[in-house]
Design brief:
Length: 395
């Protein structure tokens, strides 16, 4: 069994930790592959940190939180958190006999690069979790200017971490191609593709439970559409609202549910013409599966961009394992090759939508076999397949 330390850097919202990485590391421990600890930098509240700590303890995971100050400018607070954590981090690695460091994204990569000589002296393996293409995503959304000082800093951190690491974890085949095309000196054998596997005991299809939940929602013949998870500039909400308005004009009866942790984000964004059809719910993670089981269609729309090639949206696995057909944008990670020929998915070109074809498909989706969709979702996105991938990467 290998002792690993997963280092991550977050804001005040840490939902992905509890619903993605905690289940993965806990299951890997049950398999006897690793003993896992998590070091999380964030500016989450004390209440949120306590909640995450309790969840980690229940799953027998080590967890340490390092606060990031919000009273200082971002660059200064980040520098303070990084420099102030070095001694504690090395002490933790020694006391817990950590053998492998997994640094997720830019700031943990920077910490690892700063300490790499000491880490090497301690015999630590270094793994870079290059989840997505975050720098390119920021360029695509206009949050980062190409050639700017910050762009050069972040690109340098990523480039050096890709070279210094023993292994690199990615979520898509297109990510590997991207990194190799931008860093010709890298060895493709250091890349390992891993999934964002979902627990089949949590996300599954059950007809009786579906009927009961629809009754509770007072849903009759209308379609229930659902967007589960994060909201933000990359999620093509204008496109979604345009689609909903068009479907309404064609006489399709529907309700659109947003299941999210930040309901305030949608304030002022939903057009008046479709407001009566839109419901925004802030749910505990435990409540989400019942809503997915009751729904008729899962939404996963993204702005078309180069950065989207690195994405493996968690929600797609949750949707399909719950028996949901999916409406998604073309160009999201490897989804084009995985799902383009499947009847349960409808892919749209964001700039050119065949509304007639989309409307006809949405009329047909109630006739699809939800159990078959769930089986396909398990085959492509289940936790067990992800654990196999992590086990190969960590051995």
């Amino acid at each position: 069994m290998k002792n690993i330390l997963f280092i991550t850097w977050d804001s005040d919202k840490t939902n992905y930790m509890e619903n993605l990485f905690f289940p993965i590391f806990s299951a890997l421990q049950d398999r006897g592959v690793v003993s896992a600890s998590i070091l999380q930098f964030s500016w989450a509240s004390a209440t949120e940190v306590n909640r995450i700590t309790e969840l980690a303890q229940k799953q027998k995971l080590g967890y340490v939180h390092v606060p990031i100050s919000r009273s200082l400018p971002a660059a200064l607070s980040s520098t303070k958190a990084i420099l102030g954590s070095r001694t504690h981090l090395i002490a933790y690695i020694k006391s817990h006999q950590i053998q492998t460091i997994i640094a997720r994204s830019s700031m943990p990569a920077l910490i690892t690069l700063i300490l790499r000589k000491k880490l090497r002296d301690l015999g630590c393996e270094i793994i870079f979790d290059a989840d997505g293409l975050p720098i390119q995503e920021r360029l695509d959304l206009g949050n980062l200017k190409k050639g700017s000082f910050m762009h050069k800093i972040l690109a340098g951190i990523e480039r050096n971490m890709l070279r210094e690491s023993d292994k690199v974890l990615v979520r898509t085949r297109l990510s590997i191609s991207w990194h190799l095309s931008h860093n010709s000196d890298l060895n493709k054998d250091k890349f390992f593709q891993v999934g964002n596997g979902r627990d089949p005991e949590r996300f599954y299809f059950d007809l009786e439970k579906r009927i009961a939940m629809r009754d509770a929602l007072n849903a009759k013949d209308e379609l229930i559409l659902v967007h589960s998870g994060s909201l933000g500039p990359g999620y093509a909400l204008d496109l979604l609202f345009n689609i909903l308005g068009e479907l309404k004009s064609r006489g399709l009866a529907f309700q659109m549910f947003f299941l999210c942790r930040d309901p305030d984000y949608l304030k002022g964004l939903v057009p008046e013409s479709i407001k009566v059809h839109v419901k925004v719910l802030e749910l505990d993670y435990e409540e989400v599966p019942a809503y997915l089981m009751a729904a008729d269609l899962g939404i996963s729309l993204r702005l078309a961009s180069d950065g989207a090639k690195g994405l493996l949206p968690i929600k797609i696995g949750e949707y399909m394992m719950s028996g949901l057909p999916i409406l998604l944008s073309k160009g999201i990670g490897d989804m084009d090759s995985l799902l383009e020929d499947e009847e349960c998915s409808y892919m749209i070109e964001n700039q050119s939508i065949d509304f007639e074809g989309l409307n006809e498909w949405m009329i047909r989706i109630k006739d699809l076999d939800r159990s078959e969709i769930s089986s396909l979702g398990n085959k492509l996105f289940s936790l067990n397949s992800t654990l196999d991938q992590y086990e190969r990467a960590l051995k």
